[in-house]
Design goal:
Number of domains: 1
Largest sheet: 6 strands, mixed
Strand order of the largest sheet: 2-1-6-5-4-3
Distance between the termini: 27 Å
CATH topology: Nuclear Transport Factor 2, Chain: A
Helix content: 25-40%
Oligomer: single chain
Strand content: over 45%
CATH class: Alpha Beta
CATH architecture: Roll
Shape: globular
Radius of gyration: 14 Å
Length: 127
């Protein structure tokens, strides 16, 4: 895949994420998608397959009143690409970690994307 194709897939995914559009998030994902969330160097969530990804996306959507990933940088390599993001969200529900309804989350992170068959095959969200 060329860089512009990778960039388009990633931008479409992020746009759908920000809009709470689960079908839009899924449309460019490989059926065997592997998703990992990594916080402070520790894997806090790992999903395999499009249905597991869909289920997780549907479960967490109600936690947020609003959320936005803003891409601040793209870095491409032969295997995929990495984006740097500014993330912000407002909670619509309290979380087990003590955050409450209305609390705001702001952080910087990065996401690493890999591709197969012209689709996103792996995502690692790192914060």
């Amino acid at each position: 895949m060329i860089e512009i194709e990778k960039k388009n897939l990633v931008e479409n995914y992020v746009r759908a994420y920000n809009a709470f559009d689960i079908e839009g998030m899924l449309k460019d994902l490989h059926d065997e998608i592997v998703f990992k969330n990594i916080t402070n160097g520790e894997v806090t969530l790992e999903l395999k397959g499009i249905e597991a990804f869909r289920n997780q996306a549907e479960q967490v959507i109600g936690f947020f009143a609003e959320r936005e990933q803003k891409i601040t940088n793209f870095v491409f390599n032969k295997d995929g690409c990495e984006i740097e993001i500014d993330y912000r969200a407002t909670l619509a529900a309290g979380l087990p970690n003590g955050l409450k309804t209305g609390d705001k989350i702001e952080l910087k992170g990065k996401s690493i994307f890999h591709f197969a068959d012209s689709k996103i095959s792996q995502i690692q969200d790192i914060s």
